[in-house]
TrEMBL record:
It comes from the Bacteria. It comes from Croceicoccus esteveae. Its EC number is 1.15.1.1. Destroys radicals which are normally produced within the cells and which are toxic to biological systems. PROSITE patterns: SOD_MN. This is Superoxide dismutase. It catalyses: 2 superoxide + 2 H(+) = H2O2 + O2. Residues 92-193 form the Manganese/iron superoxide dismutase C-terminal domain. Gene3D superfamilies: Fe,Mn superoxide dismutase (SOD) domain (1.10.287.990), Iron/manganese superoxide dismutase, C-terminal domain (3.55.40.20).
């Protein structure tokens, strides 16, 4: 058994012009696939061969196996990220909308804080909307392959701030990518599922 390389949940051109088909095909078909392939090569023939991706990440983190952690965490982060975007422009509702208002004052204020965190993030990494055990929301940042797949925070949404996520479309202007995607293509239905479940999303087996 090996870690699955999942299909995109929409057509490669479905987020255009915010993200082009070229970006999605390169990001998903080359970067994400490479992380999955390297993870599978590392666990082949070991006790982790049949493990869930989250278990592999936790094991690599505990053992200090940076190579396995980087590839397994990036596999998870990308699997989560694809679902965080949608061709449709949706909006938060229900308990999630209330939690956003409680934590940030408004949806727009939350987006501004998420965009600012992503724009100000040094080098590669991820910015997250996350919930603690009590359901309180916060903006979190992880560097490089850092992930919320493990730990105490429940990831609700993420945006990739590695250059390969946006460079073909926006060159070095990361803020434009963050604003366009976060205001036009965030999948708030997926976010609501993550918030309501109250536990970390499971990578598809």
């Amino acid at each position: 058994m090996s870690i699955k390389f999942p299909d995109l949940p929409y057509a490669a051109d479905a987020l255009s012009p915010a993200l082009s088909a070229e970006t999605l095909n390169t990001h998903h078909g080359k970067h994400h696939k490479a992380y999955v392939d390297k993870t599978n090569a590392a666990i082949a023939g070991t006790d982790l061969d049949n493990a869930a991706l989250e278990t592999i990440i936790a094991h690599a983190d505990k053992k200090g196996d940076q190579g396995l952690f980087n590839n397994s965490a990036q596999s998870w982060n990308h699997g989560f990220y694809w679902h965080c975007m949608s061709p449709q422009n949706t909006a938060p509702s229900g308990e999630l909308a209330k939690a956003i208002d409680a934590a940030f004052g408004s949806h727009d204020a939350m987006l501004e804080k998420l965009q600012a965190a992503g724009a100000g993030h040094f080098a590669s990494g991820w910015v997250w909307l996350a919930a603690d055990k009590d359901g309180k929301l916060s903006i979190e940042e992880t560097h490089d392959a850092g992930t919320l797949a493990i730990g105490d925070k429940n990831p609700v949404l993420t945006l990739d701030v590695w250059e390969h996520a946006y460079y073909l479309d926006y060159k070095n202007v990361r803020p434009d990518y963050l604003k366009k995607v976060s205001t036009e293509h965030m999948n708030w239905d997926f976010a609501d599922e993550n918030y309501q479940r109250g536990s970390t999303w499971s990578y598809p087996g």
